[in-house]
Every structure is written in structure tokens, then in C-alpha cells.
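Figure-free illustration: sequence to structure, shown twice.
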Amino acid sequence: MKKSMKQILVAAGIVCIAVAAWKITPSEAKLENTTPEQQIIQKQPKPITYRFGLPVDSFNVVENTIENGQTFGTILAGFGVDYPIVDRIAHKFKDIFDVRGIRSGKNYSVFLASADSNEVARYLVYEESPVNYYVFDLSDSARVYKGEKEVTVKQREIAGT
């Protein structure tokens, strides 16, 4: 009887250890050895960074400048965007932005998302000027919209004799 009681206690101890290990996640285990102030800092989510109204943290962003002779189609083809999507954007959204208006020397950014083993272009942002930009949504439900960067006006005065 004593031998079976020992076996039951050992088995119960093993079960308790397994349940405790299952319930404590690695992040909680790390929090056990920290002060309450450190725990508050560690539990706060990382703030999301936005650029052109898009969450930069969710994408791999490639920034470049349009070279002489480059077109809207050649830029997107370099990032694996299918021609039907390029054609749909060029024709359907001509009233918002005519893709023939892309000029060399202007900046653009491509937002790439990981899909399976390769990266897929999800957005292209064309910076028309230091303030105005256009966002091209490259998903199946393609759309285009114009945006403006926030501008801070600082007035300064200088005098001299």
C-alpha cells in the first residue's frame, strides 16, 4: 500500500509540474524576474509607425527614385505586379491620377508584404511633390487616392544693419 501511495504522489507531482509549465508562457516567465515598473514597460505594445497613412511595421518598404524612361508599368513589373492590375489602375483611375504623368526624378515607395516564400507589392506611393502623394492599392480591388503630408509653417524674422 505504501508503494502505491508513493507512486500516486510522484505521478501527482509530475502532473502539477506539467500543468505549471504549460500555464507559464515564456513572456510571463521573464516578467517574474522584473520590477513592477519594468513589467508595465514590457507589457505596453510597440507603437505602430505610419507613413503615407500605411503601417510601415507591417511591410518591407523599398524607396527609390524614378529614372529616365521608367514607366508606371515597368516599375510595378519589377515587383511582380501582374499586367491586368496595372492596366486596371491606368484606365479606371485616370481621373484621379494619369499614370502617364509620372516624371523622372520623383520619389516612390513600394510596400511589400510577405506571402509564402516571396514578397508581393501591396502599395505603391508616388510622391508628386514634397507635400502631395498618390497611393496605389495593388490588391484585386485596386484603388487610388491622393494624400497630403502634414506641413508645419514656421515664421522667422531676421534683421540687420
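We now fold a second protein in the same way, so the two outputs can be compared directly.
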Amino acid sequence: GRSWGFVNFPTIAVAGVGFEEQVSDTAIRNTGAFSFYAHELGHYYFGTVLRPNSELAPFFMESMTEYLSIKATEYRYGKEYTKNYIAEKRKVLKDKKVVPLNRVTTSEEIIRDYYRYSYGPLLLMGLESIIGEKRTYDLLHHVLSQDGKRTDYNFLKKSALSIGVSLQDWQRFEDTFVQLETAADIFAKLPVTAE
């Protein structure tokens, strides 16, 4: 009863659910299908345009793609979608320990689904709460223009600083979001959960 998908551009393969159950002749039928296809389309950027090549590869491949999916689905269906997404992730991340992103030394530390698909995107939402949506998109755009560079934490930080994020704002992001060791602590810090 479980569905899954993967992308090998230009093809998105889906198993476990009928395509016609998700997509009509004119629209994607629901937020779940919309976010799924948005995520898979995001892999064109994080997987084809940028090929992550370090211990943070799961973060660049899945967390950034999931962040794009959240934003696309929010744009289409409204902020209520994001609030519901966060509420669902609260259940997923309950009692989960995490390695702070700046202390990851092997991809195995963040390869678990709950880190890549739940915690990592919330980290990016936390960054957005500090630097704004436009600058977060600028950061992703800059990262995509750097294929071939080692995609480690230092690369992420340097990319942020190079697009104009202040060292003070980056430090605030690290202090508020990155340094957490218990995933559930992030919910008290995300502004959208307080609304």
C-alpha cells in the first residue's frame, strides 16, 4: 500500500498508486500529489544541475528539494498547507536525536528519512525565517551555479555569505537552528508554528 517515486530526467517514475488517481487532464488532484511531483521536479536542480559530492549530499539532494516542494505547494494551496506539513513533521521528529548539520562527518549520519525529508527542510525554513524567502531563494540559486565544488557545510556557509547574508545572521541561524541535537526543539523556534 505504500507508494514511492524517483526521477531520472526527463522521467518521473511512480509505483504503488495510479497516475490517474493523482493527475487529471487539467490538474494535480490534491496537495499530496502536488508536493510529491514538486519534490521530484526539484531533483532536476538538486541532482542534475548540482550533483552533491560530500557528506552533506543527502541534505543537498533531499532536504533542499523537499524545501522547494513545501514552498511550491504553499504557493499553490496557501500557508495552511505549510502549517499542516509542520504539524505532521512534529509527529515524525518526536524523540529523534540529530547530528547538527555543521558537525556531520559522514553521509550516514543524515541519510535517515526523518533527517533528509523532515528535519533538513525545517532547517531551511529556519534559515528563511532569519534571512527572508527571497534571499533563501538567492542562496539556492547560487548553490546551483557551483556544480563541481565540494558541497560540504563550509560550502553552504560561504555560499550564504557570498550572496549577502551577514555573518551575524548566519551565526544566528547556527545558534538558533543548526546547533540543535534533538529534532523536536526546532518547532519552538520556527515562526510559522507560533501563528
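Summary for the second example: The two ends are 35 Å apart (CA to CA).
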